[in-house]
Amino acid sequence: MSLSLVTGTLRQTDYWWTLFKRTWKGGVIGSFVSPLFYVVAMGVLLGGFIDGDPAKLEGATSYLSFIVPGLVATHAMQIAVGETTYPVMGMLKWHKTYYSMMATPLEPRHLVAANLMFVLFRLATACGVFMLVLAPFGVFESWWGPFLAFGSQLLVGMAFAGLVYGFSTRLYSEQGFGVLFRLGVLPLTLFSGAFFPISNLGPVLEWIARLTPLWHGVNLSRMFCLDTVDWSMAAINVAVLVTTIVVGWFWSVSGLEKRLAD
Fold first, then answer.
1. Measured between alpha carbons, how far apart are the two ends of the chain, in Å?
2. Which region holds residue 6: left if phi is over 0, alpha if psi is between -120 and 50, else beta?
3. What is the DSSP string of 211-241?
4. pLDDT tens for the chain, residues 1 to 262
5. Rounded (10°) CA dihedral 192, 195, 200, 201
6. What is the b/e burial string over 157-181, where b = at least 16 CB atoms within 10 angstroms of the residue's CB?
7. Is the pTM of this model over 0.90?
8. Largest CA distance in the chain
């Protein structure tokens, strides 16, 4: 008898919780300390040399207020990519964890769901702590905005988690991850509106940036944090991210099914 998606996912809770307890210390610097130093360096120190013109900074009154929402959204993408590249390949190629799980009543869809739920947990803890630490900096213009911004950061993280997970299941050599980081993650980080308005890119590159899931996440996070919400645009941003998550789910499940059948 086939297990339901919820039952199959919950049966892996002990494994993922044990994995987290054994590895969480190694992620503290990358998840919390480094991003905070980055905010201080870019937003506070460098930001002191940039005029806080709301007309040029999408409604932000300081460069710190402008850069923080985008950095947290970008951080969510980086965490999601990090959790769905080498760890996924390890479970397929080096440790063979997925193959041992398949000796039980679990199915590929259960494995994907549990793994992505772990990624969601990592995103929630990292972005949640990040937002709490940033609250004293005075970058939030309303009490409710940070909560919606936090939700948008989870959306953008999960959008990339599904896409990259599916990519990893189809990859047989870790060398492909270098290409992903150099030609995918790095350009997105720099040119999706986190560090400067995408209008500075010119008409063509601006529209290319608007097609990326990260820009939609950055835009949502910034609008909510700065209380400059255009609800029609916010709806488009959410629709794009949710659609990407759905596509990523089917892409991931089909990829794992084919890989485990090899």
1. 24
2. alpha
3. TSHHHHHHHHHHHHHHT---HHHHHHHHHHH
4. 689 999 999 999 999 999 888 887 777 766 667 767 777 776 666 666 676 667 677 878 788 888 889 989 999 999 999 999 999 999 999 999 999 999 999 999 999 999 999 999 999 999 998 888 888 878 888 989 999 999 999 999 999 999 999 999 999 999 999 999 999 999 999 999 998 899 999 999 999 999 999 999 999 999 999 999 999 999 999 999 999 999 999 999 999 999 998 7
5. -40
6. bbbbbbbbbbbbbebeeeeebeebe
7. yes
8. 65
Residue 214 near residue 198 (C-beta atoms within 8 A):
no
Here the tokens at position 17 are 């919780």
DSSP codes, 56-111: TTTT-SSHHHHHHHHHHHHHHHHHHHHHTSHHHHIIIIIS-HHHHHTTTT--HHHH
191: its two tokens: 């040119």
> What does the DSSP assignment read for 154-177?
HHHHHHHHHHHHHHHHT-SSTHHH
Residue in the structure block whose two tokens are 């990358």: 30
Alpha-carbon dihedral angle through residues 71, 76, 77, 81, given to the nearest 10 degrees: 140
Torsion of CA 119, 70, 41, 132, to 10 degrees: -60
